[in-house]
## 1
Amino acid sequence: MQCWKFMTTTSSGQPILRENEKDILMDQSVGLYHGKLKITNRQSGRIYLTSQRIIYIDDLSPTKLSLSLELDDIKKIDYSSSFLRRSAKMIIFITKNNNNNDNTAQDDTMTNLEEITSTTWVCPFCMVTNESIYKDLSSEIPTCENCGITPDFQMIKSSINISSQVFNTKENSKKNENVCPACTFINHPQIGICEICGTRLSNSSKIRLKANKKFKSLEDSRLQLKLEKHSNSDEDINKNTEALNVEFVQLSFRKSDGLLFFEASEKALRNFKINNIDTTNSNDNKRKQIFNQNLASINGIKVKGDNDIDNELPFLETNLKKIGITSLEKSRENQLLNNNILFNNALSDLNSLMNLATKIERLYRNKNISENNQKSLPAIPSLIIDRDKFYNKDLFLDEIAREIYDFAISEFTTSRNPSSKNSSKSKHIIITLVDLYAMYNKSMRIGIGLISPLEMKEACQRFGKLGLNELKLTTINKRVLCLSTSNSFDYLKEEILRILTDNPGCDLLGLTNLINNNTNSVNNTNTSTDTTANAWTMGVITETLQNCVNEGDLLIDEQISGIHYYGNIYWKI
Amino acid sequence: MNETNEPTRNEDNTSSGDQSSSLPATYSFPPLYTRQPNVMIRKQQINAWIDIILQFAQLHKYWIISQDGTPVSSNLSIFNNESIQRSVPQVFIDEIWSQMIQEKKALPVQEHHKNINQYFILWKDIQSWASIILQWFEDFNKLNQVVTIYELSQSDETMEYEFHQMPESLLKVCLKPLCKRNRATMLNDEHGTPIAIKVV
């Protein structure tokens, strides 16, 4: 649990970065896991990758619940892709700070005690007094911190002053102090990056550990981490205590696949490690980085160094050393490179999206097949009727005729109780073939080949032959083909006339609403369940109205706003 | 004349207020204003319109109503119902008029042998008018006397009778049946137009 740090944010919920820290990437809808357990209240937030940390900003209360994770503490990261309902996760392995490590660290300090001495020499060119940790300058002469020139040993021989004794006495106390190697500011033991100049404090983790050992009670009170518990049994509590010391944490990407984030953080981590080695290994390299960055050669002599890495990972370069137009140019360059990376990753994102789509399709098909296997289920039947499965068109048409029949029945009588099925009132269906065609193709045929209107008609004509007697193909007004149950047209007509005598002057829309609500209420009194809201489609009602008008049962009132319908009360035929 | 026009128009406005109330209930039934597609229904609808026009004309003594439904002395069209915001489309108006003429409930007004898109409204048919006029001749002992057409229309003696203030041209039409039955003879002026009548 020590790896999590409290993260200060602005009131608007943006992370406050340190000096020298650069944000690289951001992702949405991320949840945090410690080990395998969810961290409560940290399940929906944004995640920022910066050059130094991974920062979690909570969506609900960013000022209170935000966390950060030092890249310094990360051993390695791993990625597990999403699988069906499991979202993609990035697994972060934390370097263990247990007692064994601590002992070795202490041993290190003991052995290093004599090695670390302070040697001063004066640069013969700019007369600046330089400091070096090396005792023997004759073998390796450091570069001047001010002018960047490596002088001849003979020239500085006289000015060398080894003050190891003074340093040694200081050593013990200094070891426990968090001294910045660049500016010598003594930072708080908990801080890993110098507060003044932003330099990474290389030995801070050891010091921090010691400090933690000293003040065991010293824990950030703002950090309130609770793990989600699966059950309350004793074993699990033990497990939970174990879980606190678990060496990995996970980021769960709820919306994206997190691949881009993973790649970016992998790069950031690699870069960070390289910088780490640079700073700890030799002051020489560090100085080169600061003063002669990207230097290829001095006076024709090639300079050793792994600057290539810097070019490869442009986003970690600090702008501290450059000012003015150069820095602007550089940052622009970085931006372009970042964009490049982003675009590349976007393409891979697109790829993964396609994968996801095929996955969904597969899932859908699998589900259908499994549902078909369980024929006892009363759910909407969804056999996959693929043209290729049938030897000839007749068989295919028969099969889709059955499916259309089932579809129409289930679509327009869903959620009606069997008891209501016995009552004749609620079982009237009329659907125009055009509507049915669209609905059927949209909901049943996508992915397995749409059917043509002609096939639909032919299939509907087969109902009688197949012993499907409830629905019949009928023609309203001698022009509109409909599937309907017997007497349903007369029923609908009666219904419309009844409604119009109650509400004279209704237009088509009002009538559609009224009739559907009305049949609902009628059915509700019978069965107390909801019927489908659009049992009567507008097309059917239009045709029925047309029929009524032609027969003289209804009168029309044509206005700009539309046609209003009235019952024929004055001019009986 | 202009001065007297103003108050009459106002009277018309006030009377048009109860115009819809004095007319049958169908007058405020919106479908009346739309030509119904069903032929049988439409026949009844046109009959309803003819009844309304006759009733409207009789009530206000509008002898002449122009093609668009406005009486000569008013500017409110019968085909326009302000209270329910409906009006009859022109095509349907024409259909109503032609049906009305066919049924001899209306007569096109002719000036110099030309139609001027105005119609006499005959809430009584011409035979009835003729017998009413004959009745007047008998009641007022005007038999075998020459009576000018102007007298028939405007004199105080006809005040009690319904044909009072009937336009002269319409009166001439109504008197024709009497001539045909040889009950009356027309007296023409020097241009050959009838000016007076003598009932035997």
## 2
Amino acid sequence: MKEIVIISGKGGTGKTSLTAAFAVLGGNDVVVADCDVDAADMHLLLQPDFNYSDDFYSGELAYIEQADCIRCGKCKDVCRFDAISVKLNRFTIDPMNCEGCGYCARICPAHCIRNKSRLAGKWYISNIRTGSIMVHARLGIGADNSGKLVAKVKDEAKGIAIEEQKEFVLIDGSPGIGCPVVSSLSGASFVVLVTEPSVSGLHDLKRVYELVKKFKIRAACIINKADINLVKCAEIEQFLAEEGIVHLADLPYDENFTKAMTQGQTIVEYDDGLLKDLVTDSWEKVKRLVREE
Amino acid sequence: MTSQKPLKIAIASGKGGTGKTTLSTNLAAFIAEQQEVVLVDLDVEEPNSGLFLNGEMIHEEFNYKMTPQWDESKCTVCGICRKVCNFHAIIQLGPSILVFPELCHSCYACSELCTVDALPMVPKKTGILKEFSSGNLHFIESRLDIGEEQAVPTIAKTKKYAIGKFPDAQFTLFDSPPGTSCPMMEVIKDVDFVILVTEPTPFGLHDLSLAVETIRAYKKPCGVVINRYGIGNNDVIEYCQNENIPILAKIANSREIAELYSSGKLIYRTIPEVKVALNEILDYCLNNVEGGNK
């Protein structure tokens, strides 16, 4: 079983659209994991059936048993997150600010601060029309995206892939370079970078690839909307060559991506021309490269 | 423009790539043609606003977070530090204490509960903050070092720096990170108004509705700018109508805009319709948003 992670650094480059297309092309060989749990969109293309769902708890949240509180204010003094406020001599904890470090509870002389586990979101195992399984999640409003829910989705998907003897786990990562991305990359076998030829596309690609290099994972790249800016496109190609990143394909700027999305389809189901061929060819190359690893 | 209380406005979106940075930089440059404006790039994982602006760098400083440093000479290896760390950032290996700074949330529990003062908190560099100036436009960005995972402390610090330096600026714009979780919340929690940039597609709508839920949890007023208007469908407009969210402006889908953006150009200088849209957004903010939030 091999883990393929699709990331982009910059948002809106077409990462999720391509991941969903790969999921359709991979069919029964692929377990899909939507690890962009903060703004999960892949379900809009793959229409999972939410067959199994479970709450996800992560971290702690402090609360004060008012009856036992002696109003000494020590908790407020030690809190580094401005989570404790006092109004009319009543100390309360703002769950939005509480980091769950537990420091207040440890030093409370009246032992009246308790920690409860924090509901961080929900996660799901679904059947999808490719005949395979998709693991996905939804982060709760105000929950922290520390990467733990990402790790959960990924671990569940891996478990299923091993049990059902699937060849690949296909992971839709999140934008940026922070905790959720680090969590998506850890343990991956191969990375597909999706970028676009713009000043920000190239800038973000370079930053996220620096992170990929720290993990020593082999990478390939798809340049989406490649014909928008040929000069930037050439710069990206040069960067790929210098870094030894496999250049999988240049996809043209094409509104069929949006039209497919509006129909709830992937690009390989909606389009019947060049775009479909290029994406199909990219997936074949990815499979070959991953099998070489 | 009428003078009123300082306005702090976040430019955010659930989905990435909808045009937050385009709107932030164009709006800031447009306002700067007439008056002072501060633009703060708080997408510290992938800061892009600076790619679209020119200015002279007038200040630079490192960003730090405080993490414990083990002082072997004082340590009695009692193990309290390890027990009080809820983030598993401290482990004990035989007679040694190991600290993992990237897991540390800087709560100080280990340091202050250590009975022999063997874990003093020391600064660890997490990135760099820069301030640029160009006429009326003050631009501040922070970028996280690669491998640093926690964006929130850097966002909080950068915001504080900007507000501290320009407390009376009529306009302070915050270019927010994508998503709806902690980094985005850190940006919106003390602004007066949130501009949500979306696109009229199923992804755009879905992530917009998540962002609206988050903003409502903070009871902040917000308005929507629809970018790439003309592609996709009308569901975003219907959603805004049903939810009573004002649509501040629509920016038409255009290959020309995508091309200008890709070269790092400010689009309103070439495309008059965009200038009209910026004016509409500005008008709305001046007439409907109450400033002075802390």
